[in-house]
Write a structure and sequence with these properties.
The protein is 21% helix and 37% strand. By secondary structure, it is of the alpha+beta class. The protein has a 6-stranded antiparallel barrel with strand order 2-3-4-7-6-5. The chain starts with 9 loop residues before the first strand and ends in a 7-residue tail after the last helix.
Amino acid sequence: MRNQRNSERFEDFARVICDELCIVSGVLIDISKDGFKAEFNAPCTVDSEKEYLVQIRLSRVNAEPLDLLVQPMWHKFYDGKTSIGFSILRTKDATRFENYVKMLKQDKLLEDDTSAVSLDTDSLFI
């Protein structure tokens, strides 16, 4: 599948709950400032014209779950699983969602800086 997001994606793990879409909760696969991809281990009934209220239970931070209004942009069923790409619509927790993505970006930048330092072995032996 082609990457059609304009924003940087971050891999993360969270529980995604949307009873209206699927009887089982899904897992967050990746996230960007504009939306996220979730995977459900069951067939889901997806209406791309409809807005859904989803709850994301983050695993990295001990915070209240995010309640977000989303719209499916695409969906694919394969091997008994349903993958769905969601776009975030304006909602009460949209700012918290954006702040979480900013935190992931900062973490990635720090991780990249740390790996760059640790890979520079020439400067260790003078």
